[in-house]
Write a structure and sequence with these properties.
The structure is a homodimer.
Chain A lengths: L3 H14 L8 H8 L3 H13 L3 E3 L5 E3 L1 H23 L9 H7 L5 H10 L25 E2 L8 E7 L4 H9 L7 E7 L6 E5 L2 E5 L1 H4 L2 E5 L1
Antiparallel strand pairs in A: 1-2, 3-8, 4-5, 4-8, 5-6, 6-7
Helix pairs in contact in A: 1-2, 1-4, 2-3, 4-5
Bound molecules: manganese (II) ion (MN) (4 copies).
The structure holds a DNA duplex.
Chain lengths: 218, 218
DNA sequence: AAATAAATTTAGACAAGACTAAAAAAGTAA
DNA sequence: TTACTTTTTTAGTCTTGTCTAAATTTATTT
């Protein structure tokens, strides 16, 4: 239906649109996609011709409904494959993104339906990101950054903001994983580091870390 | 490493090479790939530059060792994915080829290693075709076409020669599947049809069918 | 309101992979 | 051996997706 490149642009615009109040800018897309602004302009014209984006010269783009639906479908595939890689093939959560980037372009509705069933209809991927339904709606979940929690509060890890390999490996090394319970014991004013209770252990965590970890508080 | 198109050409040449005494001809490749002879010539030059084929103008091509190794790796991926689709996702054997055609181009050695393990290191795909090892060697298996068996002989279905959806569906409909035991009861001289014993049932099978079904005789 | 800077688009080029039409080589028949 | 046929290659074109360099538009300063 759509080329890999077109799909990647749609995905990039979709992600950028959530933080943009106006249209998404050419430069923002170029940076996200690691490409040149002129290449972006070329592609925006093509996507516009195909009614996937609303594009007015010099004014950035927004996705059309068709564009949003298509982007959601690609994200759905990406995240389902990530679940597969971690749950079934025993990959660790820092290894799956690049492979999912390829797998997300495999074209077969039946395949995704069967994969979804095989994985028992997961709602969140290995990084805690929501998996959109076939219809394109994203499951919501209350979550808050660890850095925004007050001393004495308790929560369960449900996601990461930064999904870089180095951050995920740091969490692994320190025994922090999705599903783990954390209590904020103490807040260090000087550098905003936190003392936390993790299972039976207690540890100190920098603000950098705490501001990239999502918890669900009850 | 190599583009999807290059990989597809290598695969086509690999399959054609097994029935060609001389080099594989341009026209044969064009037919196999559903493309034009001129496109084939273009690609043969590229593959030759990359030392994947031995190509002399007007004399057809053969794969180099590097070409053979690469082709085997792609076939390995294709067939492992087919096993996955049938064994884990519950596809039927007539639905998997097109999807495997896409999945075979996913690039990750680790993925294939883990998939292989997940599937418990299968040696044959859902159609009975051998899955080459990581090193590129194909497992052998004694097998004979049902049409070449003598009256009274017994064997177990281990593969199909024709893998078209219509043939596979015919087999499904008639309860013929890999692993099933078949005995040749009678040979009809007039049209070479066969009366066979399949489990507790007896049935008549045309020569067309019998000459596309491989059995292992003990 | 100019002048300057930044963002964006256009123009022109290139590589990959395909095609058509024409030329060249190889094979076959008279 | 010459004529005809088939196969293969070459020449030139097209599309997709990318790039650089230049032009244009928009935004920000003085
Ligand atoms: Mn990812
Ligand atoms: Mn993810
Ligand atoms: Mn197949
Ligand atoms: Mn097969």
């Amino acid at each position: 239906m759509y080329s890999d490149s077109e799909e990647n642009y749609l995905k990039a615009i979709f992600h950028l649109e959530r933080f943009a109040e106006e249209g998404v800018t050419t430069n923002a897309i170029a940076e996200q996609m690691q490409t040149k602004a002129s290449s972006v302009t070329d592609m925006l014209k093509k996507l516009s011709d195909k009614k996937l984006v609303n594009y007015i010269k010099y004014q950035g783009v927004t996705l059309t409904n068709q564009g949003k639906k298509t982007a959601a479908a690609i994200i759905r595939k990406h995240r389902l494959w990530e679940v597969f890689l971690v749950e079934k093939l025993d990959f660790s959560w820092d290894e799956v993104h690049e492979i999912a980037e390829q797998l997300e372009h495999i074209e077969s509705d039946l395949l995704i339906e069967k994969l979804d069933k095989h994985l028992d209809f997961p709602k969140f991927d290995p990084h805690g990101d929501p998996i959109p339904s076939k219809e394109g709606t994203f499951p919501e979940r209350d979550k808050v950054l660890l850095s925004e929690m007050k001393v004495g509060e308790t929560g369960v890890c449900v996601g990461v903001k930064d999904t870089s390999s180095s951050f995920l490996k740091y969490l692994d090394k320190n025994g922090i994983a999705l599903g783990k319970k954390i209590e904020v014991l103490e807040h260090e004013e000087f550098d905003d580091s936190l003392h936390i209770q993790l299972g039976s252990a207690t540890m100190v965590i920098s603000h950098m870390i705490a501001s990239n970890l999502y918890l669900k508080t009850n």
